[in-house]
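We close this part of the discussion by returning to an individual protein. Part of our work consisted of pairing the sequence of a single chain with a tokenised description of its backbone. No coordinates are needed to read the tokens, only the vocabulary itself. The amino acid sequence and the backbone structure tokens for this protein are reproduced below:
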Amino acid sequence: MLSGLLAGFADISPPQLLLVAGVALFAAVVGGLAGYGTGALMPLVLVPLIGAEPVVPIIAISAIFTNLSRATAYFRYADRRRALIVVLAAAITTALGAYGYTRLSNAGAALVIGAMLILSVPLRRLLRRRDVRIGDTGLGLGAVGYGVVVGGTSGSGVILLSLLMAAGLEGAAVIATDAIISVVTSLIKISVFGLAGVVTAQVLALALLIGAVALPGAFLAKTFVERMPVHIHTAILDVAVIAGGMVMISSAVRTLVG
């Protein structure tokens, strides 16, 4: 088992592994503060190293660790009723979205991830500006569509956050409820990816590295949450996400045209 995991790092140099670990820790802290970050930031470092195809499976597996730590840190704030509504509504569509992702080529995966990253920024700003409010029925219907997106892309956490806020959750309750839901959707995605045979030694090794490094991130974020202005790191994250998405799409288009 250990030798198999080490084999997953065979094509990645120690400096590259350190870069992945550093970004994973930073993304976990950002996620603990804002509720999203890992799915948006990790593709920016993973895609240039290993290509786009393995990225969503890697993040799905590592998300178990990051979201478990986040759920533990904020558990008493979680709205378990609304979490159950989303999980039940999104379960089947999450599996369908994950299956669709396994059918994409490397260039196709890069296009999907890049487009989702770029769209997530104006979508978050639009939903916040409109101050949309929904009840349990609207939350369930929104979760059905969210399942398709989260199953097949990375960086879609902003949709879930927007749904939960529209349902009336605020602050730590949003982060805690999001974390519980994300653990379940990640387990669904991993099951589909495992059956499809896309969970390779490299995928598992990088996912475990990211997950292990990111474990303390939520607790660090909880410590700093009152000291760091959220709007600053949110603005930086927006710029990084849009730039990274454009690079991925550009690279995919060159591959398809070439």
